[in-house]
Amino acid sequence: MSDDTGKPGQQAVPRRPGRRQVLREAGAAGAGLAVGLLSAASPAEAANGNPVLLGKANSATATTVVTTTKGNGLQATAKANGASGVSGVDASTGGGYGVHGTSSAGTGVYGTTSAAGQDGVIGWDTSTGGGTGVFGRSNNGTGMFGVTYATGQIGVQGLDNSSGSGGGFGVVGASTEGTGVSGTSEDGTGVSGTSTEGIGVTGVSDNGTGISGSTSADGNYGVQGVDASSGGGYGLHGSSGNGTGAYGATTAVGKYGVQGVDTSSKSTETGVEGGYGVYGTSVNGTGVYGSTSAQNLSSPAGVYGTNSANSVGAAGILGSDISTNGREGVFGESIAGIGVLASTSEGPNALVSQGNAQVQGDLAVTGTVSKGGGSFKIDHPLDPGGKYLYHSFVESPDMKNVYDGTEVLDASGRATVMLPDWFEALNRDFRYQLTPVGSPAPGLHVAAEITGGRFTIAGGAAGLKVCWQVTGIRKDPWANAHRIPVEQDKPAADQGRYLHPDLYDGQALTELDRSPRTPRNRPA
What we know:
- By secondary structure, the protein is an all-beta fold.
- It is built from three helices and 13 strands.
- It has helices at 423-426, 477-481, 501-504, and strands at 21-24, 34-37, 75-77, 375-379, 388-392, 400-408, 414-418, 427-437, 445-451, 454-458, 465-474, 497-498, 507-508.
- The strands form five sheets. It has a three-stranded antiparallel sheet, with no helix packed on it. It has a three-stranded antiparallel sheet with strand order 6-11-8. A three-stranded antiparallel sheet has the order 7-10-9, with no helix packed on it.
- β4 and β5 form a beta hairpin.
- The longest helix is centred in the C-terminal third of the chain and has 5 residues, at 477-481.
- It is rod-shaped, with a radius of gyration of 44 Å.
- The two termini are 52 Å apart.
- Mean pLDDT is 75; it is low at 1-44 and 519-524.
């Protein structure tokens, strides 16, 4: 729909007058102008009182004014292809305006087209030094405003067709204190930028925000970037010389400051499955960094990853070191808490190491340790710089504790061995060994078994040194609840599989049968 003023936001169809006068003459520029003057309009005022000359040069220095109270003040029509209905040329040496429009209550300059693929208003800069094709400026409002009601179309569009290696800019907005370019949309995209070789949208700010986007529509994006290249590019790219390349924040509970989602499928070329939801790389610093200052959450996290894939080897967070000199695939550090925490609610293992594991410090295990073997490894006492010394663990089918010591028999050939006050609370099923030192003692024996935190040795000569050893089986609550089975059948899935398949020429157990990860190449 349209009114007489032809304001943006409505289909503007100029109202034709009831009567008109058509004056046809060949213009100086060969544009073939057809100008209609309304007979009911106010008289045209020419410079110095001379008449308005249509199709001929007016040499007066004053402004020619055409005034009308209805319809269009001046209408021109061109029927020649490539010509202009109205053409304005600024031939001044100091720079002026080829076409200038002002309005106190409406639209300064307004253009429409009904031809598909054409332009309502077009501005073209043909200067060699570079100027502005279309320029809009406002003291208190909007310098340039575009709107479209057509689905999939564009309110304001800028196109860079430059051929240089660095490219140009389809649309540039600059602001000293406010917003360079602002776009809003009720249902679609506020600002959209695309590029076949360069950058779709770039924002630069000396003191504020380079690009800012917001949305009030559920499920939509404040800023969205899409990479449609065939060789792989970046949907969104942020860089900084001294600050933060990309920054995201949220005040909504359970939402994300920055979220990355990989929806790719298995590559038919490389066979590598999937891509990266979030990828970070750094030359001298940290590729991806996360921190949290939350105090009221049960499990806050600086970086949090989840996995919903059922495939073997899928990971919520994956770190891979592909360096040649050996670095960390995943590194966790904490000043006062936990550097890396692994947990599982239903799975068999919270943490699996497909290879050697090294703990440079104390290791605390609250559950049962199951192993193929065990030993200590230290620098050799006699050659600490050139050798290691190993000792194997002492194994038992029971949860057995071993205690030993020495005693000297008194004048009656007896000795009482005192034990810790917790001894009987921890142990049961005691076993004894006695060894005389220096001379045989055929009658050496345990005269009284352990009770009240002591036992008695007798049967030797006065002053005889006796070595003793006592063992006991744990009976504390944890041991009673977690007895180690001496023999156990393998589950059905592991029948015919082995903990050490290389020794039996067979397959590994199902929980260990994971194909080693192949390091992925970094994105270009």
